Amino acid sequence: MSGDTEGTRLDPWLDSYASRALAMRASEIRALFAVANRPEVVSLAGGMPYIAGLPLEEIADTMRRLIVERGATALQYGSGQGDEELREQIVEVMKLEGIHAHPDDVVVTTGSQQAVDLVTTIFINPGDVVIVEAPSYVGALGVFRAHEADVVHVPMDEDGLIPESLDETITRLKAAGKRVKFLYTVPNFHNPAGVTLSLERRPKIVEIARRHGVLILEDNPYGLLGFDSEPLPAMRSLSEDGVIYLGSFSKTFAPGFRVGWAVAPHAVREKLVLASEAAILCPSNASQMAISSYLAHHDWLGQIKSFRVQYRERRDAIIEALEEHIPAATWTVPAGGFYTWVRLPEGLDAKSMLPRAVTARVAYVPGTAFYMDGRGADHMRLSFCYPTPERIREGVRRLAGVVDAEMELVKIFGTGTDRGGETVSFPSPDVA
Ligand code: PMP
Questions:
Q1: Least crowded by CB within 10 Å, which of 117, 197, 221, 255?
Q2: Hey, which of 118, 191, 224, 428 would you mutate to test ligand 1's pocket, going by the most ligand atoms within 8 Å of its Cβ?
Q3: What is the pTM of this model?
Q4: How far apart are CA 49 and CA 249, in angstroms?
Q5: Distance CA 357, CA 379 (A)
Q6: CB distance 225 to ligand 1 below 6 Å
Q7: Which of 50, 110, 217, 250 is the best mutation target for the ligand 1 pocket, counting ligand atoms within 8 Å of the beta carbon and taking the most?
Q8: Is the peptide bond before 135 cis (omega within 30 degrees of 0)?
Q9: What is the Cα 155 distance to its own chain's centre?
Q10: pLDDT tens, residue by residue, 228-275
Q11: Does the beta carbon of 130 lie inside 6 Å of ligand 1?
C-alpha cells in the first residue's frame, strides 16, 4: 500500500486540507513526551512555571468571591479588546519596563501565544519573510509555519541578537526581492537560548528595523523574572510606532488563566482586535477578572520576587550540576527566566539521543525544535523552572550517564546522527 493510500485510509479528508494544514505535523518526539511526563522521569523539557509556589488558598478565595459577587459579568461574553480595568492595570505593569502606553493601546489575548498568531495573521502572506533569532521559540515557529511564512534565522551571541547580522540579513533579503515583514524577538532570558539582549544593542536593533521598514514583534513573557537585576527597558519604550510588544501573565502569575496582551501602534491595534474577534469573539471574562483582582488585592510584586528567588535557586542547581557532571558540554548561564541552552560534546546528536535519555528517566528538548532549517542537533534546551533543585541535580546526573555512553559510542563508531529532516512541529504545551 502506498503512503498516500495509507494516508487516505486513515484520514478521509486528506485531499481537503488547506496547504498550511498539510505542513502541520506532530513531532516524532511528541510520543516520547507522553512518557516524559511520568513521575519517575525528571523532565527538564517543559517550560512549566512553578505553580506550587503560588498562594493557592488565597487565589481560590478570590475566585470564589469573583463568581459569587460578580458572576453575571465574569461568566458572560465580554469586550473583544479585553476588560478595561485589566487593561489599565496592564499599563501599570508595563511601566516597570519603561513603557508608557494608554489602556486603549492594549489588546488582551488568550495568552501571548494568541497574540503571536494574531500579529502573523494580519501581516503575513505565504512567502513573506519573518526574521527570528537562531534559535527561536518553538511555539512562534509553529505559528509562522502555519501561516506559510519564510522564516529566516539571524545569529545571537551572549548579548542576544547581533545587530550587524540583522542588518546584513535584511539587506540581503531585500536585494533578493523578498518582503521582510517583521522581526520576532525574545529580548529577555530567551527561550531557548537563555541570553538577554544587552542594553546597548536595544536602540541599535530598533534603528536597523526602522531604517529597513521592518516591524519588531517584541515577545517578553520573562522580562520581570531577572534573578539579580532590575528589568531592562523594553524596545517598545524606544519606539511606539515600530514595535508591537507582547506580555503575558503566564510566567509571573499562572498560565492556566491564559491571559496575555499586545500593545501596538493605533492602526495595528484595530486590526488585532478585529482578527481576535474573528478568532475567539472575546478573551475569557472570568480569567481576566481573576487576574485583575489578583493584581488589585495581592502582593503580586512580592510574588514575582519570590518566583525570582525560587528560579535562581534552580538555575544555580542546574549550572552546578552541569559543571560537576557534564564538563565536556558548554551552556549559557541565564540571568533570569527558565532555560539554559546546552551545546553537547562534539559528535553527539540531541535528537537521536533523546529515546535513550527518556529510558534513563530524564527528558529535554532537542535543539532541532528551535530551528526551521535543520540545525540544532548539537544543542538541547534544559528547563529548570519546574523540578525541585534536588530533582534537577538528579536529572543532570542521569543525563550525564547518557552523554558519557554516547561519547563512548561516538569514539567507536564516529558521529551517530539524525541530522536534518523535519525540524519544527506543533509543540505540545508542555514542551513550549
Ligand atoms: N513566548 C515565549 C517566548 C514563550 O516562552 C511562551 C511560553 N512558553 C509564550 C510566548 C506563550 O506564552 P503564553 O501563551 O502562555 O502567554
A1: 255
A2: 191
A3: 0.94
A4: 11
A5: 14
A6: no
A7: 250
A8: yes
A9: 17
A10: 989 999 999 999 999 999 999 999 999 999 999 999 999 999 999 999
A11: no
